[in-house]
Amino acid sequence: MKLGITRGALLAAVLAALPFGVTPAQAAGTLTISSPQDPGSWDPIDTFLVNWSSVATNIYDGLVYRGPDTKIVPGLATEWDVLDEGKRLRFKLREGVKFHNGEDFNAEAVKFTFDRLLGEEGKKGPQRSNYAVIEKVEIVDDFTVDLVLTQPDPVLITKLAGYGAMIVPPKYVTENEEDFVNANPVGTGPFKMTSYEPKVGVKLEAFADHWGGAPKLDAVEYRFISEPATAVAELQAGRVDIVIPPTIPISMVPTIEADDKLEIRSVTSPTVYALRFNTGNGITADERVRKAMIMAVDRKAIIDAVLGGQAKQIASFQSELSFGYDPEMEPLPFDQAKAKELLKEAGIAAGAPVQIDIRGNDATFGEVTQAVASYLQMVGLNATIKPYETNVLLNDIIPQGKTGEMFQQSWGGWTLDYDNTAYLMYHTGERWNPYDSDKELDALLESQRPMIDAEKREKVLQEIAHYAADRALEMPLYNLNALYGVNKRVKNFIAPPDSRMRLNEVEVE
Amino acid sequence: MAQAVSRLRHFKNIEFILGVLLAGTMTLAVLFSPLLFPGGGEQIDLAARLTKPFTDWTHILGTDPLGRDVLARVVTGGKISLLVGFTSVAGAVVVGVVMGLISGYYRGFWDMLVMRFADVQLALPFILLAITFIAIVGGGITNTIVLLIVSQWVQYARLVRGSVLSLNDREFIHAAKAIGVPDFKILFQHLLPNLAGPVIVLMTLNVATNILLESSLTFLGLGVDPTIPSWGGMLADGRTYLQNAWWVSVFPGLAILFTVLGLNLLGDWLRDLLDPTGRTET
């Protein structure tokens, strides 16, 4: 028995309106997704986790929307203009949009959202600094709103498509307790949350009144499964339809590929991996040693063997999706003879110790590092690996400058703009830059931030990438694909590069 | 009756022989690993990664995801595992038995001090203790051993204390006290041999647990440098490959199994040999 889409959605809506205790029949229209992490709070201003977005992209809308093709398209705003030389953005808002709780969406809701994000409440969360360039929000009329900026920001329009800029209902947020709002999010998106069990999962239900039309699925269930083997076993058993990144390790790809009912979707992601150098002290303070170490390692061979071709070699610390990527740029070649020569020139004795600090829980990267260590042994360096608990490494060892000669850095950056990486990695005094201070590099980094001329800005970003590579500030390794394990009964699912997936077009058989 | 006893003896001999065979072979192989495999299984060969076992004579047990020889790594890896397993148990036994004897024999203040301390420690989950400990003093082999001693002496202390409490009221202890045998002699000559049985059994089990704990520490990134092979580390590394390359984790797993089984059999045999009550015919 096949119900029409609208009738199915209508049925779901009717059932949802029934008193508590009546559950809708498990129709074929339910999709189950395995996500590795419970973000804890669903409030947009409380999070920076990509797996928050994997769920929340379906609950909330932003003024603009960025889909799997990474193009910015209208969301809650139908059109927008850049005024005052980039210091004022005027948005025309969509009319007749309602929040899941029945509240109306209008200019007031936009102003409330940003006032909250930039005010006292936003201060407590990690999102505020991303939007600090917004000075104030001015309501022109009920459906026109201006964002007034302190200086032009070319990346802001992208940032309005996610995270802190998701529009929240003013009445609902002010009238309810913070903890309640965190656990019961209300937005304008195609799905509404019906239940949230911390550490277990969330259930979403189609929101038939969505401005873009009712979603094709009746319900979506997310289960939080952090253990890769468990997630893959559930996928094989058919209890999970999609396993989203970052879950599936490279080593399990053949297992999924061997199953007729399943497939692997591998898409270019913004995630890049590098082993960065301690440029402050030790033998790696010498640029020649850093270059020698890069040349000593056959990065291509590691990617082909250990990563099974699910990654691309990089020359600078960004993916090809990133604004500022230079396709012409070539990584340093694999040349052990030259490496030995450089080490000799720098006066490094055979057996000099090199300690590599990594996250202990990343099995794939652990293997990569062991291969790197082994290549470094070949040119006479005594490489050892020191795994840390992830939080210790990220919150203590790196920011305090207590690393060994090299340390792991993996970086995503959903805005797909090299500024978001380069500024935080190379600018003096930044949290992720405990060792280096380079006036020339600082100046370059600062100069591109207010540029509205995209072409000019791209040139500067490319220059920064070359500059960092010339100084060999890190050993760039690879850009890892995002791996989705998908049951073939799922139709119309486009795997996004950044795990922020919207499921309103998806169907299941 | 006599027949039954001799059959039992016979069985005990098999236990002994098997135990020596299993644990002995593993220990000898591990001890002579520098001669057998001078490279220590550290040589990577990306072209030969995940070679199947018994297909290539240079890699009889196959290779791991980085193309390193599994046999060489199993044999070399035993060094860390056995070193950590044995020394940590030995340390825990020394500390635990002494503490247990003192608190069981003297009771009162010392008993309260030691046992409350033990209670506090038992209330702490191992992983929490491990993360705190490693965060303060850092990882590495020595620190891992110390951590295991710190976390496990309690078991021995409680076991020993319990036994001492029940032995304290036995005639031979009363008699020893009555004729004025000094305390340390009572503790080590009269009490200790009577406690040896359960302690040795716990020890043999514990060596196995500690080999596994070392592996979980390494797995969490709190233990030993991953470039040095260890059974636990190899198990953890091979875990995600289990469905398409079973040999990476199965062989180190078998190595642990044989060693632990051998040690348990030896422990059984040793307990019967040492247990004073076991010498009467039962």
Task: Describe, in plain words, how this protein is organized in 3D.
The complex is a heterodimer of chains A (509) and B (282). By secondary structure, chain A is of the alpha+beta class. Helices cover 30% and strands 22% of the residues of chain A. Chain A has 17 helices and 21 strands. In chain A, helix 15 packs across helix 17. The longest helix of chain A is centred in the last third of the chain and has 17 residues, at 454-470. Chain A is globular, with a radius of gyration of 24 Å. Chain A starts with a helix and ends with a strand. Chain B is mainly alpha-helical and 282 residues long. Chain B contains 10 helices and no strands. The A-B interface holds A 228-229, 249, 251-252, 254-255, 301-302, 304-306, 358-361, 363, 366-367, 369-371, 373-374, 377, 383-389, 392 and B 42-44, 46-47, 49, 65-67, 131, 135, 139, 219-222, 225-227, 236-237, 239-245.
Protein topology:
The complex is a heterodimer of chains A (about 500) and B (about 280).
Chain A: H1 5-17, E1 30-35, H2 50-56, E2 64-66, E3 72-74, E4 77-83, E5 88-93, H3 107-118, H4 120-123, E6 134-141, E7 144-149, H5 156-159, H6 170-175, H7 178-183, E8 191-197, E9 201-206, E10 219-224, H8 228-237, E11 242-243, H9 253-257, E12 262-267, E13 272-277, H10 287-296, H11 299-306, E14 311-313, H12 336-345, E15 352-359, H13 363-378, E16 381-388, H14 390-397, E17 406-411, H15 418-426, H16 439-448, H17 454-470, E18 474-480, E19 482-487, E20 490-491, E21 507-508
Parallel strand pairs in A: 1-10, 1-11, 15-16, 15-17
Antiparallel strand pairs in A: 2-3, 4-5, 5-7, 6-7, 8-9, 9-10, 11-19, 12-19, 13-17, 13-18, 14-18, 20-21
Chain B: H1 2-31, H2 33-36, H3 70-106, H4 108-123, H5 126-137, H6 141-167, H7 171-178, H8 183-219, H9 231-238, H10 247-274
Helix pairs in contact in B: 1-3, 1-10, 3-4, 3-6, 3-8, 3-10, 4-6, 5-6, 6-8, 7-8, 8-9, 8-10, 9-10
